[in-house]
Specification:
alpha/beta; 10 helices; 6 strands; 12% strand; disordered C terminus
Length: 301
């Protein structure tokens, strides 16, 4: 009885949150943290936690499609994850391969026209993972309603370092002028990143850090960040709606700040104009003459 009542209250709260959401971010990026801790607390193997997390990933894709999010980037395997025990890595690679192929074959993915793409240092991954990536990308390459980026062997600093080295080599050989390097030029070279700037980063599992995830696309755009305590397998639609509410609050705060700055600029411009007019009146109507320091006849003390 208590469980049923709790479920009813949660559904009511979810509907309330939905009504409060007036706009959604275009691009959401998720750091799926807590799979191993979830498994440990449930007395299961780490692989069970990763599989439970993969189920949440499927639900997350549905939530984004329902709410109108246009791009979703999932941090599935970082460059630092290569340091994990071999057995765990291999199990992860098997799961990633299985899920990529499964996603690419799901009717919902094709009905919703989801385009799947892997980003990161793909060449570092085992052949079976690369083959699964190719399969998923080719099966969905004609779609564009919702983009799903799966970050595999991804590290934001490594990506930026690669671009910096590339530009440095070209500059040293005279192929490019460093003065001509622009923001657009760097973005064009970030071939392993997403297609849009990130509006909202979500991290589950309780840690409050972004862990080298999309530093150019997120921090440069001042993305809203939502940290929450549920492990990724426990992440719910209510948690997602709360994250979107945080994004909306951030956007509203940004609009208010911009409006306040514009008003302050207008007031400052008005003060300057009044001061200039007062000075002109003093100079032309008997006020104290203002000496021009550029005039050699002026006696500036």
């Amino acid at each position: 009885m208590r469980h049923r009542l709790r479920g009813a209250v949660r559904r009511l709260y979810e509907r309330l949150l939905e009504r409060e959401v007036s706009g959604v971010p275009t691009h959401v990026a998720v750091i799926q943290d807590g799979n191993r801790r979830y498994a440990r607390e449930h007395g299961e193997e780490k692989t069970a936690g990763h599989r439970a997390g993969a189920d949440t990933t499927e639900r997350m894709l549905e939530w984004c499609a329902d709410l109108g999010v246009e791009e979703l980037t999932l941090y599935a395997f970082s460059t630092e994850n290569f340091d994990r025990p071999r057995e765990e890595r291999e199990a992860l690679f098997d799961l990633i391969s299985e899920k990529l192929r499964g996603f690419a074959d799901r009717p919902e993915v094709h009905d919703r026209e989801v385009r799947i793409r892997a980003i990161g240092e793909i060449q570092r991954l085992p052949e079976r993972v690369r083959e699964a990536i190719t399969y998923a990308e080719e099966r969905t390459e004609g779609y564009d309603s919702l983009r799903l980026n799966v970050a595999l062997a991804y590290g934001g600093r490594a990506e930026l370092l690669g671009v910096a080295r590339e530009i440095a080599h070209e500059a040293a050989s005279g192929a490019c002028d460093p003065e001509d390097v622009t923001v657009s030029e760097i973005e064009a070279r970030l071939t392993t990143g997403p297609t849009r700037v990130v509006d909202l980063i979500i991290r589950t599992g309780g840690d409050e850090r972004t862990s080298n995830f999309l530093p150019w696309h997120a921090n440069g755009n001042e993305a809203a960040v939502y940290f929450c305590t549920p492990y990724w397998p426990e992440f719910s639609r209510v948690d997602f709606l709360r994250a979107i509410r945080t994004y909306e609050s951030r956007q509203e705060s940004w609009r208010q700040t911009r409006a306040q700055r514009a008003a302050a600029l207008i007031r400052a411009a008005g003060d300057i104009e009044r001061n200039d007019t007062t000075g002109l009146d003093d100079a032309t109507h008997g006020g104290e003459e203002i000496e021009d320091p550029a005039d050699p006849d002026s006696s500036v003390i």
